[in-house]
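thread from #wetlab-drylab

HS: before we spend reagent money on co-crystallization trials with zinc ion, can we at least see a predicted complex? here's what I'd submit
DV: go for it
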Amino acid sequence: MNTEPKFKIHIVFDNRCVRNGFLTGFGFSALIRNPYTNNYSLFDTGGDGNVLIHNIRQFEVNLNQIKNVVISHSHFDHSGGLSEVVRHNPNIKIYVPKETQASFQRKFSQQEIIGVEQAEEIEKNMITSGQIGSSIKEEALYLKNRSQEIFLIVGCTHPGLEKFIIKARTMGNLKGIIGGFHGFRKYSYLEGIEIIGACHCTSHIQAIKKRFPNHYKQICVGDTISF
Ligand SMILES: [Zn+2]
Ligand SMILES: [Zn+2]
């Protein structure tokens, strides 16, 4: 019997695909339950706080149960829901790329904004990539299990998805990715990855589906991925 603890990744915001009872809007967000801490964390917040909160509640989770929110980058479709999140849970810990810390701090003057520079463990087996890239700096999230396997959650990957993949592979065996791949076309980096959940801003979904028909996974709001 496999007794490996499993992360649950609930898709709470996406603009491409939505299950019954859930709402859609422009952006991306995933709600993560960490089996090593029993905490919930949010990765990105979509562009609309009311849509986001509706979807989180559909999973029977209350905002005040969420311990951390990790914002990939400041673009509206990833951070637009943050003010509603903070309104419902003023104690939530907020992680943003270091270069945007000051602007988030101005907007959320009552909150402590944590600026992320290097890769660091936010809580057990949940690691931020640190801020990656030059013009738009972005952070992503790595989930790690006991077998040293990695699941990568990304926002828009403006700096290039391969940069996040290369870093993941220094930590363990990369098994899955979800999020926005933007204009990514360096498909050879995806070889060997079991779950390829390209969604949100991914331009070349059809090409990815064609090249990896057994591993491409359609991601819809309302879906849960276990890892
Ligand atoms: Zn963006
Ligand atoms: Zn985006």
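DV: The chain has a mean pLDDT of 97.
HS: ok that's useful, forwarding to the group
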